[in-house]
Write a structure and sequence with these properties.
- By secondary structure, the chain is of the alpha+beta class.
- The protein has 2 domains: about 10-65, no CATH class; about 75-155, 3-Layer(aba) Sandwich (Glutaredoxin), CATH 3.40.30.
- Helix content is about 45%, strand content about 10%.
- The chain has 7 helices and 4 strands.
- The protein has helices at about 10-20, 25-35, 40-50, 55-65, 85-90, 90-100, 150-155, and strands spanning about 75-80, 115-120, 135, 140.
- Strand 3 (about 135) and strand 4 form a beta hairpin.
- This is NAD(P)H-dependent oxidoreductase subunit E.
- Its cofactor is [2Fe-2S] cluster.
């Protein structure tokens, strides 16, 4: 049997306030992810129970919107832009290099030690600096594959 998910008092109050409002599920899921960094199975079950939504609807919403994460991100979150400009200038190459350097394979996005996660994003908003990636909100532009090592090394020592 799954253990109950513990939410903060603020999140509990938010759920109580929103559970009967239209559009509640997306708003509540955003708050859960904001608090916990991702949406665990236990959190999804708790949201389903508290809002009266079937668990399938909660998971359907989570899987439809790419923003929602079901895997705990690493301490250092590497977001690589795959918007049009970044994609055309090598954004996918940056993802491939990050994953290779960190030993990630297939669909794995978080390193075994939990220190890094790598994920594509649709746009960082720095198209003139393409290709772009950010680490914990620090933006790096006009990158090449051979510069990735230096970016990652900075966060390994912090």
């Amino acid at each position: 049997m799954a253990t109950a998910c513990e939410f903060s008092n603020e999140l509990n109050a938010f759920i109580d306030e929103w559970k009967t409002k239209p559009g509640n599920l997306i708003m509540i899921l955003h708050r859960v992810q904001e608090e916990q960094g991702f949406i665990s199975k236990e959190a999804a079950m708790e949201v389903a129970g508290r809002t009266g939504n079937p668990l399938a609807r909660v998971y359907g919403t989570m899987s439809f919107y790419h923003f929602f994460k079901t895997v705990k991100p690493g301490k250092n979150r590497i977001s690589v832009c795959l918007g049009t400009a970044c994609y055309l200038k090598g954004g996918q190459d940056l993802i491939d290099e990050c994953k290779s350097m960190l030993g990630l394979s297939g669909e794995q996005i978080t390193t075994e030690d939990g220190l890094f996660s790598v994920e594509p994003v649709r746009c960082i908003g720095c198209c003139g600096l393409a290709p772009v990636l950010s680490v914990n909100g620090d933006v790096y532009g006009k990158l090449t594959r051979d510069q990735i090592d230096g970016v990652i090394a900075k966060y390994k020592t912090e």
